[in-house]
Amino acid sequence: MPKFISKGRRIVLLNTSVITAQGEFSYKEISLLEARKKIRLFKKSNLEIMSTIGHESTAQILSDLLNTEVKVNRINYVQLPTDICIVFRLKDRTAEGRILTKEELGRTEFVFGILIMHSSRKTFK
User: Fold this and answer.
1) What is the value of pTM for the model shown?
2) Which of 19, 42, 63, 115 is 20 to 30 Å from 33 at the Cα level?
């Protein structure tokens, strides 16, 4: 079993790469297949997959892309060191206040990434 899968870990789905807590982080782009594989491994291991996706159209396209149900869950999220965040990031910025439909999202370029917190302590003074 991969080392990133262990009790107490969870995958958190984000719709942008955002730092939500103090600490040291790393971010790496991954393929859609890699994102699907991580989701599949977590499901198989009965570990939590949490959505922070705030719009229905984004939840729908992610459900289709990741082959798993992604629910709308508009929350204030603070990343924990045990969280593995899968980031869905659009390559183009949309107009302020505009919410894209599922069809528009399907025609928009995007990337997936992994955002990991390595340390939750303050490192800069």
Assistant:
1) 0.83
2) 19
- 77 is written with which tokens? 């999220």
Long-range Cβ contacts of 2-7 (<8 Å, 24+ apart): 2/41, 4/38, 4/84, 5/41, 5/42, 5/45, 5/47, 7/47
**The Cα angle at residue 43 between residues 114 and 28, in degrees rounded to 5:** 10
Pair of tokens at residue 5:
């899968």
Query: What is the set of domains in the chain, with CATH numbers?
Result: 10-80+93-115 (3.40.50.11170)
